[in-house]
Amino acid sequence: MANHKATKKDVRQSRKRNERNRYYGKTTRNAIRDLKAVTDKAAAQKDLSEVIAMIDKLAKRNVIHKNKASNLKSKLAKKVNALA
């Protein structure tokens, strides 16, 4: 690592961003896992909108690719709609 002020600042910023992105990514993965475990359709519909918002935020922040976000949302919607 170079000993320039700007480089040191960039390292601090990237570390902070990385931790934040890991936190949001892990939180979203946990929410997806919990949504998949739900068996009641009404509860799943309510949770689905929250999880979709979380996925959209990840895509907006470039934590995940927009196509991956789209695929996740599609699969979750299919799963929720298949519930009895």
Automatic annotation (TrEMBL):
Organism superkingdom:
Bacteria
Short name of any one Pfam family annotated for the protein? Ribosomal_S20p
Q: Which GO terms describe its cellular component?
A: ribonucleoprotein complex; ribosome
Listed under GO biological process in this entry are: translation
User: Which parts of the sequence are annotated with region: Disordered?
Assistant: 1-23
Q: Which InterPro entries match?
A: Ribosomal_bS20, Ribosomal_bS20_sf
Q: Under the GO molecular function aspect, what terms does this record hold?
A: rRNA binding; structural constituent of ribosome
Q: Which UniProt keywords apply?
A: Ribonucleoprotein, Ribosomal protein, RNA-binding, rRNA-binding
The UniProt family comment states:
Belongs to the bacterial ribosomal protein bS20 family.
**By its UniProt entry, which NCBIfam families does this protein fall under?**
S20 (TIGR00029)
What the protein does comes down to: Binds directly to 16S ribosomal RNA.
Which named protein is this?
A: Small ribosomal subunit protein bS20
Taxonomic classification, please?
Answer: Bacteria, Pseudomonadati, Bacteroidota, Chitinophagia, Chitinophagales
Provide the gene name from the record: rpsT
